[in-house]
Known about the structure:
The chain is mostly helical.
Amino acid sequence: MLLRRITKHVKDQNWFAVALDFFIVVVGILIAFQITNWNDTRQSHAAERALLERLNNEFLRGEQLVSGTADLISLIRLGDEPQDKEAVKRLLLLASRYNAPVASPTVFSDALQSGRLSNLRNDALRDALNDYVISTAW
């Protein structure tokens, strides 16, 4: 249909109509590219948010392990009998995992190996994760 119209305008030597048809096609293509870029950006930001949430959950578990062990050490140093024995049992359970070989966090390892960490826009976070990699390598 469009080709037929353009051909008719060329035969009639209606150059204004040819230019207008060409302009409409070019603008349509540019709008399509822009929509594609917006969609790609939206998907990238959604993937980044999901990765950040998963990383936060993973490192929060590690932080709970360390703080639970520190709480248990504090209880032991006090030497008093604890009030909440169930809480002490939970702290003991956490502490028993403390010296176990700690595997690299799976979400972090996966993101590192797949190159998705480079998609993080926060430079400070990328630096902190890099420092984490260096510290765990020791």
